[in-house]
Amino acid sequence: MFGNFIKKISDFFYGIPRVLFINFYKLFTRTRIFNFKRLPGNKSVILAINHTADADPIILLAAIKRKICFIAESENFGNWLTSFFMRKFANCIPVFNKDNSFKNAKSFKELFNIAKKKNVFLGIFPEGMLNKKNGFKEFRKGAAYLSYKTRLPIIPVYMHNTNRGTESKRWISNNRITRGIFSLVINAYRKIHIFIGEPINPIAENILEEFKDFANPINYKKIINNINEALKKEFLELADEADDLFGTEDDNLSGSNFIDDLDENPKKLNS
Fold first, then answer.
1. Which of 29, 105, 148, 161 has the fewest CB atoms below 10 angstroms from its CB?
2. Integer Cα distance of 164 and 132 in angstroms
3. What was the pLDDT predicted at 214?
């Protein structure tokens, strides 16, 4: 009991930098949220978010004013400075690739402990990486897998009209700290629209379909595929809704499709 009390005090003081920073940045944001009531007020869910700008986590934290624990690739925690920023300001937990998957045990334990709480959101970017082009990169199945394991619904969150920045090869664009700061600056005072989608329940009839045994390991891959397909469908609908209201972010491209990034990065083929 005393140990839990000490941990709460520690979490409070560790959270001060993030709270101060988020509230300060909120003064410079111009976000509009659609269907805010779809976010539950008293239970945990998974937020699946499209990823178009480095500032996405901060913008979303400032907009919805709720505690979100983001899941991010371990590459974003490359040194003590980026690790401090990702942990204390963006509230992120690292997830490692196949080569270092043994390190995920600690991260997953932390995630599942968070999932047990009543009023915490888990944020994940199903595209797995920044997407500076219009449309969506093919969704990875991390969000669907997390939903399956935790039994938590997924709520799609579509961020529209963020300034994506450039795809320059220069050092300033490749350095994660400077890139993040630059993204925060160029998105200040920008009109950003955030669309909240319909919750996707992992145990809903349309997800389980013919699968009667949710816990059967033989079925889990198909169930995860169904969750992922439902997520993709919901994002396409949100993108169409945003296009109808505000127009596409690039008049020459449709925002309502998935793009194949394999030609850009052949290593992603087996991921």
1. 105
2. 6
3. 57
